[in-house]
Amino acid sequence: MDIVGLLYTVSTWVLPALLAITLHEAAHGWVAWKLGDDTAYMQGRVTFNPLRHIDPMGTVVVPGMLVLLKAPFLFGWAKPVPVDFMRLPSPRRDMAVVAIAGPLVNLAQAYIAMLLFHLIPYFGSYTAPWIAANLQNAILINLLLCVFNMLPLPPLDGGRVAVGWLPLFLARPLARLERYGMVILLILLLAVPLLGQAMGVAINPVGQLLFPMVAGLEDILLVLSGHSR
């Protein structure tokens, strides 16, 4: 791929990725603020400014290196929004509400991108493919973020939703997993696929779980937005 092609490809990923990450994190902070905890608001995290949410290593360096190395997976993260759950009226319940806000915003962005596809014919032959590529990437990124973050493992949003909604005898041991959650994710996302690749075997447990769920969710949104496969 020449430099022009590379820049074109990058330009179709940057805006969808920034919007997906920024609105996801801002949603957490906004819902926490409205429920009674202004920690994120006071730290300037209830904003559409992506610079307030980007983690230089997790949002730029690590994903960029994986893309350049043509890795079979993509992994990254943003700066987590600070939330003091003890300042919320009902900490367990409200923790779940704050957590689910981010994935729901990603789901909404994917749906809006699908609706905007109806406008593609109104653009010129030069701009239409670029806009279509941005929208397609927005759908993929947002659905992946939505489904991945809803996996029931703390510190992912799904883990916190589960801790907030499960009975205490189940929620407590799951909550204790949070200190090991990132290690478990890194093993499943990076170590296991790389080990399988070294052995000549395609092993990607997270991908094998996520991609069918993403495809099913995409099919539902396609129907709701007036498209067909």
Concise structural overview:
This protein has helices at residues 3-35, 39-42, 56-68, 91-116, 127-149, 157-165, 168-176, 178-198, 205-224. The protein has 229 residues and is mainly α.
Secondary-structure topology with pairs:
Layout: H1 3-35, H2 39-42, H3 56-68, H4 91-116, H5 127-149, H6 157-165, H7 168-176, H8 178-198, H9 205-224
Helix pairs in contact: 1-4, 1-5, 4-5, 4-6, 5-9, 6-7
**Assembly type:** single chain
Low-confidence stretches: none
**Count the helices. How many?**
9
Distance between the termini: 29 Å
What portion of residues belong to β-strands? under 5%
Number of separate domains: 1
Helix content: 55-70%
**Secondary-structure content class:** mainly alpha
Q: Write the element-wise H/E pattern from the N-terminal end onward.
A: HHHHHHHHH
Q: Per the principal axes of the C-alpha atoms, what is the gross shape?
A: globular
Q: What's the Cα radius of gyration?
A: 19 Å
* Mean of residue pLDDT values: 87
